[in-house]
Hints:
This protein has 148 residues and is α/β, with parallel strands linked by helices. It contains 5 helices and 5 strands, in the order E-H-E-H-E-H-E-H-E-H.
Amino acid sequence: MSKPRYLYIDDENGSSEISTLNGFNDTKIVEVARFNLSAFRDFGSLKKELERACNSNEFDGLIIDLRLDGAGEDRTEFNATAITSELRSISARGDIRSFPIVLCSTEEKIKQTYDSDRTSHDLFDYKLSKSNPEPDWIKNFNQIKIAC
């Protein structure tokens, strides 16, 4: 059986993001690839690319940073809840298959933005904090599998 493949979408390219990728990939139970957000920073092009990749079975799920509209060099004009809502809508119409979407952000951003927006809580299958300095990546992925 092959490993599940996830795309990791983030507007930043720093050490925290590299640690997240390496942490998951080092488990050898999941393959996480960085999504090149710089080429798809407007909503329409990102939506089309994710639809194409989904229909081509290039991934099994997404790990997405909450504040794609943050301070990163690849920032967009929208956050993760906007693109996730659209992906859920087109999946419900049957235009793409359903797949797990994991929210991955710092505790601070989750508290500031996500926790107060109750309408977005059903969009994500699992919430993962990037704030833990020593994350248990195997436990995190196993919890993602259970939630999804």
